[in-house]
Amino acid sequence: MNQSSSVEVSGPRGLRGTIDTSTWPLDGSRQEIQILLNDSRRVMVATDLLERIDDRHYRLASAAADLIARLPTDAGSTPEAAAVVPVIQEHMSIGKRTVESGRVRLRKVLRQEEETIDQPLAREEVTVERVPIGRTVDGPQPSRREGEDWIIPVVEEVLIVEKRFVLKEELRVHKRIVHERHQETVTLQREEVIVERLPAQGAPPADASTNEARPPGSTDSSIPATQQNGTTIASDRSTRS
Fold it and tell me: Residue 142 belongs to what H/E stretch?
């Protein structure tokens, strides 16, 4: 075999051989090539089982080398080379990791609204009733109380032949409770929470239409929150496989 048209092949378990590239080129035109082992056996292997080390040296995959080692020593001594067909099985490894899918920013907005209150109020009123008396008395009369009314006597002197006190009238003062409705407009304040969803760090900004406002008072206790410039920021984390 011409030395310039052959390359060396090695593999595990001391496997050695050569490939006649003039007959079995390694340019990708063939899916299988023939290897002449040092023990004169000839085997056919798939080209994707050969790993190129340099222009003159290739290494055979461990799976193919194990198959060749199991062949009987007289295999491949005939003109037809033994075919090496490796059987490959894939195994799936499943894991999961936690990634940050986004963040939410919480801020409070102070709203003002007007409400009308209607509350009954009570107040006291004093009415004065003048009751004519015209009775002669000895002098000024003391005030007295009759039930809920105060009686205040009013006297005057009348010039007659003889001077005497005449009870002219009595003032009856009593009080009553008057109920009336009172309306007044007052301003009350309430807080409203607006939720803005922010993109994850390093991720392209999300469409502004994806931001959703949560109802006032709704929170996610499972999301840790941080403070930035007086604004509460919580991380929204989800688990991806």
Answer: none
